[in-house]
Amino acid sequence: MKRQQVKAYAITIFLIYAVWYVLSLLLGSNLLPDPIIVFAQGGREIVHFSFWEHVFASSFRIGVALILAFITAVPLGLILGSHPRVDRLFAPLIYLGYPVPKIVLMPIVFVLFGLGDTSKIVLITLIIFFQLLITTRDAARKISTEVIYSLQSLGGRRWDFYRHVVWPVSLPGIFTSLRIGTGTAVAVLFFVESIGTYRGLGFYIIDAWGRADYPTMFVAIIALSIIGIILYELFDLLERKLCRWKTT
Amino acid sequence: MGSSPELLRVEELTKIFKNGAESKTVLERVSFSLGQKDSLAVVGPSGCGKTTLLLIVAGLIPPTCGSASLDGETVTGPTRKVALVLQHYGLFPWKTVGANILLGAQLQNIQVPREELAGLKRELGIEALDHLYPDQVSGGQRQRVALARALLLRPSLLLLDEPFAAIDALTRERLQDHLITIFRQRGFSFIIVTHNIEEAIFLGRKIIVLNDVKPGVRTLLENPAAGTPGYRNRPEFFQRSLQLRNILEDIE
């Protein structure tokens, strides 16, 4: 991370802290505790192994779901985007499947896959899959005829087309989709962890809320947000490394 | 020119593009031949099929009728004997200049000795650009990168689609001189598509004029002095330019 970026983060964190502090003073309610109380509670929580169990459970679910969505949606999106005929064949399925709010399938997914990690991973994967599929397909569609002719005239074959053209052309769009998907994935993670489980930060938040332990609830909210930020920054870093041509 | 062995023969080439019920004939029964170590300039108004002709010769699109044959073999797809430099150079913005130059050779498993590569880059004045991306270099440099990439394939026939179109007049002349020097040294043939009358006269030993109004009508000019030193300043050059200008004005 560049020094400028660290500075920007520090200023933002300070501003959030300041607004939070002022709001907690104005509200004067336990619902929004003083940030210092929350940080002190955070200090007490992080020394417990159970806290890290929740962090690990959430990280595992979101990480596996993102990986699964990536390895299924990206190749399919690349094929659809670069083959209009195949795209036309699959288009009705995508147009019908994408707008359906997959979260409403949660009861069915829970029945099919149980209440363990699998059902939660499947649900997050299902939601991210369509976002990633559509943005990857649209990115791959942008390939110009000139680029295709250029590769063919150089002796490129079908595999070379994917490797040297479709993949690099689509990569910035894939990373944008992953960054946007991270926000959605964290939101869905919270939702699925708030039902039928005793592990994960979603459960931790709901549990603390139920006990009116607001400082602990905020500690868990911050922990979940940090997972989202880390994933976002990871995709940003990967994009900078793999798409240097976009950033230079 | 006529004495050199034949490299390319284009016979009765016709291309009709169909879009639903509509069809557009862009080339109609075009025939010509090109010898080894020879050059041809293709001129004509926009939409007359110049680029289409190159794409057919490169094996990238099939003709509707007729054929193009290279060394006696009908062109049915891209071949190692032909290299193409597209109008916007066809460089891949996501690859560095160095990777762009080597891509064709890599795809065709051509071993390029380090000295040859360095020599070619030096010759074209692009030796210091390897680590940059195409968007970071000038139009003239991009053009030379595309030329280097094509020349590494050691083609018998180089196809150039308006390669100097977006370049200022002086740089364009320098690049034309460069092309002629390399053409003499390496002994390939080339076909250049251009809108520029002087460019066509300077580079093409043969000049073919395509017509967009009547796709079947074309004119073939012989221009044996093309590319010779000082040709641009000779009366013959101006006469040819005037002759070509008159032909083009008649078409339009």
Largest sheet entry of chain A: none
The name CATH uses for the topology of chain B is Rossmann fold
CATH architecture of chain B: 3-Layer(aba) Sandwich
Task: Could you tell me the CATH topology label of the largest domain in chain A.
Answer: MetI-like fold
Helix amount of chain A: over 70%
Cross-sheet strand order for the largest sheet of chain B? 6-7-8-3-9-10
N/C terminus separation of chain A:
16 Å
Let me know the CATH homologous superfamily of the largest domain in chain A: MetI-like
Structural class of the secondary structure composition of chain A? mainly alpha
Oligomer: heterodimer
How far is the first residue's CA from the last residue's CA of chain B? 30 Å
Alpha-beta content class of chain B: alpha/beta
For the record, what is the CATH homologous superfamily label of chain B? P-loop containing nucleotide triphosphate hydrolases
Task: Tell me how many strands of chain B there are.
Answer: 10
Instruction: Give the CATH level 1 class of chain B.
Output: Alpha Beta
H-E order of chain A: HHHHHHHHHHH
Main pleated-sheet profile of chain B:
6 strands, mixed
List keywords for this structure.
heterodimer; A: mainly alpha; MetI-like fold; 2 domains; 11 helices; globular; B: 252 residues; Rossmann fold; 6-stranded mixed beta sheet
